[in-house]
Amino acid sequence: MSRMQLQAVNTVDSISAEDFKSQYYAPMKPLVIRGLSRQWPAFEKWNWDYFKSIVGEVKVGVYNNVKSDAYTPINTADGYMKFGEYIDMVRQGPAEWRIFLFNIFEHAPELIRDFEWPEQLMKGFVKRFPMLFVGGKGSVTHMHFDIDLSHIVHTQFVGRKRVLLFPFEEQHKLYRKPWEVLSFVNFEKYFDEDENKLDLEKYPAVRLAKGYEVILEHGDTLFMPAGYWHHMEYLDSGFAMSLRALQSSFSGKLRGIWYLMGMRNIDTLMKKTAPEWWFNRKREKTFRYADRELAFTDV
């Protein structure tokens, strides 16, 4: 077995609320809905020129493709620039910089009128925090799961993006860093025989991981269930919007709060006080868990 065990994400043009809840929401399976955004004004209206005209002067944090190390706090920007300048940069061609969790709606609240919350599919949307994700061609969002454990409705507007997905339960096969939402493994260009950085000799348990992959195009909406691991690569410069919905169960909400308020703060403190010791301790534990997975399977 030389590669990961991947299958395509199911894709539909539309789906009834009943079928969505029974076939995808309840069993926690991803789905792409092509037609969900087609009736939104945003489908035709949102493009680079429009965003530049309304929020071009807003200063935003930008992120490179470098994976975090022992000293890196989660979600720390690598630089700052005006959004309009960033748009000009990524439109010119490959630019391995992305914008992460940009709440464009704080600066241009009129954009809220350009889409609809898909409450026919699920409840619990956190309406204060719709977020924009923007990347230049070649930029990468490294493998992670969202710390608040929300369900995500992720709609692609400009450009294409390749997405690799795994259920939360695959965490030890993906070499999750304890006390973090990140993987030790670099999945960058995993789909390219010549350029991939996926080291299956160093991380053999990855071969056991069962997941999904899909390429999102303009208007595609991905339902990503709570806790799903995801790795994204921008095949073209583009942007997408994520809508978050809290889990319906009390235990799911509570776990998300602990990860967000407890786990992250403890990890940040340890990275500041004993970074190398903390990093080595987490790495040892990670490989021990992965070895247990390997012990039960002949790879």
Quantity of strands, as a count: 14
CATH class categorisation: Mainly Beta
**Largest sheet at a glance?**
7 strands, mixed
Q: What is the name of the CATH topology? A: Jelly Rolls
CATH H level: which superfamily? Cupin
What portion of residues is helical?
Answer: 25-40%
Question: Can you walk through the features of this model?
Answer:
The chain is of the alpha+beta class. The chain has a single domain (5-295), classed as Cupin (Jelly Rolls, Sandwich), CATH 2.60.120.650. Helix content is 27%, strand content 24%. It contains 7 helices and 14 strands. The protein has helices spanning 17-25, 41-45, 48-55, 83-91, 104-107, 250-273, 275-295, and strands spanning 5-8, 11-12, 31-33, 59-62, 79-82, 98-102, 131-135, 140-144, 151-158, 161-166, 210-216, 221-224, 229-234, 238-245. The chain has a 7-stranded mixed beta sheet, with no helix packed on it. Strands 1-11-10-13-8 form a 5-stranded mixed beta sheet, with no helix packed on it. Helix 3 packs antiparallel against helix 4 and helix 6 (250-273) packs across helix 7 (275-295). The longest helix has 24 residues, at 250-273. The chain is globular and about 55 Å long. The model has no long low-confidence stretch (mean pLDDT 91).
